[in-house]
Amino acid sequence: MPSVSDEMLAFRLWRRVSDSAEWLQAPRLLVHVGDGGSAALAHLSWGTEDGAQSALAFSPDMASCYGHHRTTGGDVVEVRGELDGRGEFPRGSRGYEFDTEIEEAGNWHPAGRLRVLIDDGSEAPVLWVAWGDQSSNACSVVLRSASPSGKADVSDLVSAVWASAEHRDAGEVAKNLVDASASKWFAPHNRASLEFQLTQQIAVDRYVLTSANDAPDRDPATWTLRGSADGHLWQTLDIRSGQSFAERHQSRMYRIAEPGSYDRYRLDITGNNGSPDLQLEAVRFLADGSDRFVGYRQRAGNAPVAHRGIHVAQSSPDMLAEPLPEDAPAPSKARLAMSTPGFPPNTLDSQGTPIWLSELASDEPHHTLHVVRGLEPAQALEALGANPKLFQPCELPSAKPDRWSSLPGAALGIEPGTSAALLAGRIGAWTFVYDDSGFTGHDDTTSLSANGRAAATSMYSINHDASLTYAVDGTQLAWIDRHDLNLKKDLSGMPDELRAAFRAAGTVEHDYLEPGQPDYDICMRAICALASLSCTVEDLHRIPLLATPFG
Predict the structure, then answer these.
(1) Distance of alpha carbon 101 from alpha carbon 544, whole angstroms
(2) Checking CA distances to 496, which of 323, 337, 392, 456 falls within 20 to 30 Å?
């Protein structure tokens, strides 16, 4: 028999409405809390994603329990239970397992593994759990998703999406699937593949497909969802057939029986409802909030201490990842984990833009990036003509309110189109200033570089204008227009550190470019390589930032 700290308990439950004498059978309850202690539970409380809450107290021999339950509608019912069995913590279940730490004297220290399983028959995942044992130890944890919003929907972690086919001329492309707009993805085929890359590995346990605006016969009917941690071996997570959508813009949720932690998810659609074409309005990914937790732990007779944990990824021994089937539709040439010599995987988006810039920008950017060596962020903003009285410390929000806003603009509360937002920070020896609207430009490079400094400016707009200026000690040494750039011929004439930056920027192949033709994002990669800015937005959260309205 497993020890008390390892065992799972099963209880038969009954519920009765207040003032009623009749007890009605309720779904069975599975309980496990293992945090390294050996004492049995004394009481347990939990809340689920749908707003329901429960609390139980247990008899000393764990043979029975009694408590109450508040339903999602706010009704309160009594609950009683009888022990129905014991067993080991079930791997691959809805249980959570964490590596934990506690904080003591301002420092975090390893605190072992924590396993939690509360399964009361509800479809809604657990959000928080609190308990005490019969030795007067107590603990409370609040589970949260890895999503920046902290919510179950982790779609904001999708950094890129690829399709084996899309309708570019009409703007009905794959990236619309993860935008907040009602735009759709359309493919002129009745089979297609979609691949989604996330910024980190997440155990997605549900996904949502939303039907598009017209033509129900284009709706997917048969598909397979797969996950991968390396882009080569794929685990089959869910298979559906005979599916349909009763309405336009209807969202349907599908549960993954055995989730695993992956940073790539692939939807292979192999049939629809009769059309030669396919379409979807949106794809969303949800996780049950178990990626990490915060809370407290209190040992008997001691003060409570801060307690936190990170999910330990588990996979079923029966789940074998395999290469994709030979007949699986091939995705576009823009592959997952795009990289160049100066940008490792997960630092570039699907177009080849440094991912921190594409995440800062609006969906159709017209923006400028300045970098300067030898100025602090406030000094760089002043050199660009910004008003010091308007400077303010900036904490970037977790998401943009709409597709037309940038993250700095959202942080300042600027309505799109009314003024620019400048964001400044320092990483290493270089200060950067990001201008979300392109109000500043190449003329500012020489003033930034005055007094012996080196500076560069890169501008980009959605109409594919892309250029870069480089200056030292107030003198412009290079100006590069992407349209006229010939890397074989022009590299040798560049200043040494700029030549090294363009080599680090590398080239990204796209279907619409001739072989060897520089892509539209090469100047932005080069300026980031010059200043060693192969970073992510998460990295920006770790440094002091200044923001100001401008213009």
Answers:
(1) 27
(2) 337
Q: Where are the alpha helices (DSSP H) in 338-472?
A: 355-360, 377-383, 407-412, 444-448
**d(C-alpha 54, C-alpha 413), whole Å:** 40
Q: Are 357 and 422 in contact (CB under 8 A)?
A: no
Q: Which residues contact 88 (CB under 8 A, 6 or more apart)?
A: 2, 6, 7, 8
Token pair belonging to 526 = 């080069």
Stretch (H or E) spanning 487: helix 487-490
Question: 3-class DSSP state for residue 431?
Answer: strand
Main-chain dihedrals φ then ψ at residue 473, nearest 5 degrees: 55, 45
Q: Which residue spans within 49-191 are E strands per DSSP?
A: 53-58, 64-70, 76-88, 96-104, 107-119, 126-133, 138-144, 158-163, 185-187
Other beta carbons within 10 Å of 98: 24
Question: CA–CA separation, 522 vs 513, rounded Å?
Answer: 13
Label the pairing between strands 41-48 and 126-133.
antiparallel
Contact between 10 and 81 (Cβ < 8 Å): no
Residue 118 and residue 459: Cα distance in Å, rounded?
53
- Could you count the other beta carbons within 10 Å of the beta carbon of residue 135? 12
Q: Would the pTM of this model clear 0.85, i.e. be above it? A: no
At a CB cut-off of 8 Å and minimum separation 6, what does 379 contact? 431
Round to whole Å and give the CA distance between 285 and 303: 40
What letter does residue 519 receive in the DSSP assignment? P
For every residue of 317-370, which 3-state class applies, written as one string?
CCCCCECCCCCCCCCCCCCCCCCECCECCCCECCCCCEHHHHHHCCCCCEEEEE
Tell me the C-alpha distance between 190 and 194, whole Å: 13
496-505 and 522-530 helices, crossing angle to 10°? 120
Task: Please tell me the distance from the alpha carbon of residue 138 to that of residue 232, in angstroms, as a whole number.
Answer: 45
Q: What is the DSSP letter of 92?
A: T
Question: pLDDT tens across 496-528, in order?
Answer: 999 999 999 998 877 667 777 898 899 999 999
Residues of the chain with pLDDT under 50: 1-4, 92, 315-318, 332-337
Name the residue type at position 403.
R
Instruction: Give pLDDT tens digits for 77-123.
Output: 999 999 998 877 655 456 778 889 999 988 889 998 888 889 888 87
Residue 253 CB neighbours (<10 A): 11
d(CA 308, CA 127): 15
